[in-house]
Write a structure and sequence with these properties.
heterodimer; A: 109 residues; mainly beta; Immunoglobulin-like; 4-stranded antiparallel beta sheet; 1 helix; 10 strands; 12% helix; 58% strand; B: 334 residues; alpha+beta; 8 helices; 23% strand; elongated
């Protein structure tokens, strides 16, 4: 049930149509040295929020409005966030989920 | 009875001793002389051949330089009042492409003429002549790419396939036998291939060519229909063992194996010999768009030795030095 949910979420993320003022953010999320499978991703860009999920290999691709966004990934560790910038051309953001002083955080790869 | 016989033998031995020395000197002298003479003849022939080749190359270069300058001038030395003749521009580009595709990146010039033709079509309405010129432009580029891919495949590896721009992830790609199949139901961000070619191994300095295996992961990011270009992300692994290369690795291992990553837009005017990615061990790889039909993009992924890259491609000095130290004969053949 959980897997189907993740698959539908991933499919929904991949089906987001590209817009004229939108850019894509793509990459992979790693946790404990392996790709993070089926993790929910939320991108908050100004007042707009875009959701997506990672695939089986931990990779993702989300179309977002251009500008600065807060990238949040949720998994068994809780949640971890980082600031990203979306541009007209696709931008790669690959992260490793690591334990920091105040909980888990995203370290760019 | 025995004494005269012995005396006769001694006489013969004495005669032989006297004759043998000059005879041996004569034979050795003759052999030495003929060896030096043949070596000199060979050297002189080689010098003559090198000289002739040099002169021919010089004459050829001068001719090509003049030709190149006169053709290029038609593109760059236009005054503002001059109106470009699109047919002449396409013809000039054809001449440049067929004669200089190995030494120049003609992609920007192709795009420039394409933009001009597209703008003309917009201003004056779609004319059959402009459509035919745009088609001619893409056909020339396709022919040049095919020539380059044929040269590359002689000593490297070329994998062809299709990309469906309406899909995403690994499912957007349909590639040949180099594609590593995923488990049923598995979803990945990109397609992974295992490509190899036989080459001298500079690391082990083996005299016989050995096969180099690398994994290539291609990810489709975006499609610009107006520019007729696709945006791709390419990740290439370090050289792997065959068994390791031919199976999908765990994403953590796959990431650790990555040697080079590149993200780029590629369209019909990206030529593999010129527009490629550098890899270690004097190797190159390239993703070329052969043609675009509606939502289907025909691509060719090539993996080849740097010796097959264009004349414009300059190997790094440290790379040449390393090759030279590891394998002098291979480096001299570059």
């Amino acid at each position: 049930m959980k897997t189907w949910g993740a698959i539908s979420l991933a499919a929904a993320a991949l089906c987001v149509p590209s817009r004229l003022d939108a850019g894509a953010i793509y990459g992979s999320i790693f946790f404990n040295g392996a790709g993070l499978k089926g993790a929910a991703i939320t991108l908050a860009c100004g007042g707009e929020t875009v959701k997506g999920a990672t695939l089986d290999d931990g990779s993702y691709r989300i179309t977002t409005p251009e500008g600065r966004c807060t990238f949040t990934v949720a998994g068994s560790f809780g949640t971890a966030s980082a600031e990203v910038t979306s541009a007209s051309s696709a931008t790669r953001y690959s992260f490793e989920v690591v334990k920091g002083a105040g909980g888990f955080e995203l370290r760019r790869q | 009875m025995a004494d005269p016989e012995k005396k006769g033998h001694r006489t013969w031995i004495e005669i032989s001793q006297v004759v043998a020395m000059p005879l041996v000197t004569l034979v050795v002298g003759y052999l030495l002389n003929s060896s030096i003479s043949s070596s000199q003849t060979r050297d002189s022939n080689l010098r003559l051949y090198a000289d002739m080749m040099g002169r021919r190359e010089e004459a050829d270069s001068a001719l090509r330089k003049d030709m190149f300058r006169s053709i290029l001038d038609t593109f760059v030395a236009k005054t503002t009042g001059d109106k470009a003749d699109p047919e002449a521009e396409v013809l000039n580009l054809e001449l440049l492409a067929y004669n200089f595709h190995e030494s120049l990146d003609l992609g920007p010039l192709f795009k420039h003429v394409q933009r001009q033709l597209q703008a003309r079509s917009k201003d004056a309405g779609e004319e059959p002549k402009d459509r035919s010129l745009l088609w001619r432009l893409e056909r020339v580029a396709e022919e040049v790419k095919e020539r380059q891919l044929a040269a590359i495949s002689e000593s490297g590896r070329v994998e062809r396939g299709e990309l469906d721009v309406t899909k995403s992830g690994a499912g957007a790609w349909s590639l040949g036998k180099s594609l590593i199949e995923m488990k049923p139901g598995e979803q990945r961000g990109g397609a992974t291939l295992c490509l190899s070619f036989a080459s001298r191994d500079f690391v082990s300095a083996a005299t016989e060519p050995v096969s180099h295996y690398r994994q290539f992961r291609v990810e489709f990011l975006d499609f610009a229909a107006d520019r007729r270009e696709v945006e791709l992300a390419l990740a290439v692994s370090r050289p792997l063992a065959r068994a390791e290369c031919e199976r999908l690795q765990d994403s953590g291992v796959e990431r650790a194996n990555i040697e080079t990553e590149a993200q780029f837009w590629v369209g019909p005017f990206g030529f593999p010999m010129i527009d490629n990615t550098r890899l270690s061990r004097s190797e190159r790889c390239s993703v070329s768009v052969i043609r675009i039909l509606d939502n289907s993009v025909t691509v060719a992924i090539s993996y080849f030795p740097a010796s097959r890259a264009s004349l414009k491609d300059k190997p790094y000095y440290d790379e040449v030095l390393q090759d030279l130290l590891r394998n002098p004969s291979a480096s001299s053949a570059r």
